[in-house]
Amino acid sequence: MGGYGFYVWGSYGVTLVLLGGEVLMLLKRRRAVARIAPEPKLENRNAKFEAAMVSDKL
Amino acid sequence: MSTRRINWYKYAAPANFYPLAGKMIPFFTVVTVLLFIIGLYVGFFVAPTDFQQGESYRIIFIHVPAAWMGMFLYVLMAVYAGLGWAFNARLGSMMATAISTTGAIFTFISLVTGSLWGRPAWGVYWVWDARMTSTLILMFLYIGFISLQASIDDSRRADRAGAVLALVGLINVPIIYFSVQWWNTLHQGATFTARSFKMAPSMLSAMLILMAACWMYSIAVVLVRVRCIIREREREAPWLAEAVA
Question: Does any CB of chain B come closer than 8 Å to the CB of residue A2?
Answer without folding.
Answer: yes
